[in-house]
Records
---
Amino acid sequence: MKTKSLSISFSEGVSVSVDSGSSVSMPDAFESSVREDLVRRAVHSSRANRRQAYGHREHQGRRKPVAGMKHSVEWWGKGRGVSRIMRRSGSREGAENPHTRGGRRAHGPKVAKDWTQKMNTKERRAARDSALAATAQGEMVRSRGHRFDSEVSFPIVIEGSEGSIEEFDLNQGTQRFIAMMDAIGVGEDLERARTGRSIRAGKGKMRGRRRKTPKSVLLVVSDKSSIGKAARNVPGVDVVVAKDLSAEHLAPGGDVGRLTVFTKEALGEMR
């Protein structure tokens, strides 16, 4: 599979010009069949394997009472015609039992629970190749909700007209990066991600996850030390090194067809 790259050149300020570049041979992975079921399973497995163990503390009496066990209680003993549960001191009201008001949970989450999901290495690689193939199909990318110009052809490969595109000038770097995305026809998707940020529902907003940001362009590079700094402040944009590429980068949430831009140097490392 071959495609034409886009040659990027920068002039004064943040102005960018795009010309037709050289012919590029794509890795064999781009000709794989799209297996959405395999990709979704790989993504769910990757997310499950990152889960941290959580659960209640072991009850240690009055020294460190856990939720539902913070009452002053007494036991009435046997032979009084009532159930043998703990009751609030000086009251008939039951306490500290799963079926009583304000009591503990019956079967709370256990720290020892294993959340991991095993997946064969060859299956994981096949899922990554399948997700790569989906990025080369414009109708799949559009059906995922991404916005781009009608004349954009997939897969999108960029190269520098003079030297490597990854040796990015960080003077006005973020503005230059946005201008470059506009020039190749995907700037509308950056705007979609910027305006689509919203406040998260639930308690996550109090735990460092206040905002949700839509996923936008994925930039695949061979070295992100320079261009990664220029792109890291753009909402929705992710920069990943080719050797670290996974199905989760290419199909967030298990939905194939992420809008992906490859540098010519990154394709050289993917073969």
Note: The chain has one domain: 2-52+117-270.
---
Amino acid sequence: MRPKSKILIIAGSDSSGGAGIQADIKTITALGSYAMTAITAVTVQNTTGVKSIIPIEPKEIFNQIKFTSEDIKPDGIKIGMLHSSKVIKSVIRSIDIIKVKKIVLDPVMVAKGGTKLIDDKAIKLLKNELIKKVSLITPNIPEAEILTTTKIKTKEDMIYAASKLIEMGAKNVLIKGGHLDSKFVNDIFVNKKEIKIIKNRRITTKNTHGTGCTLSAAIINFFSCGKTLKKSCELGIKYVNEAIKSNLNLGKGNGPINHLNSIAIKKISNK
């Protein structure tokens, strides 16, 4: 089977396989596309937490992106963990050169166990420059609070924070509502023209490691295959929910989801 699309992933490695580059590759492959990678950091972690982070030199991150793209031009790019301002600068410089139009940014800032994954200078550069260069940014509620310096307690707060990100230069925003305590999860898609609330019943489980990485990878897959961004968000959320429902229950902490859930793939591929 010929791949539906070619996706370049710029993100960190997760040794446990549940999040980061590993989750992205599984997602993109499961959805029928071809995954390429530029690794920004190597993390030593398992389902209970992060033990250490080994950064990759910004020059080598730039080289990975440029050299790979010169040979196989990506149809879309997913950006994940960027831990320093120097790394962000190298990514900005490389995407300016390779000129790929469809880019999804998952602003990874804090690991599931609470470990901070990005420094303050990097957050400032991400806010001031990088979000203006991507098609979509997909923060969860803690990330949206950091980016907008607002507190988010309600659905209305989410819409306000998304609007602030649009004012800061983001073209499209998907704020993920999983951190709010409610029976339903509201994910909110916003741009200058519309607000779309995507509502799903909450799935009760501790095994949600890598859901943000998986979602952004699924979205760029659908988007690069020709779906609209809004539709890509809806399909990506469906894919993640099906992967959560299968409940692999691996590890002693926050376990991973099932990226290879055949039911999810069958349902979504027929949309």
Note: The first strand starts at residue 6 and ends at 14.
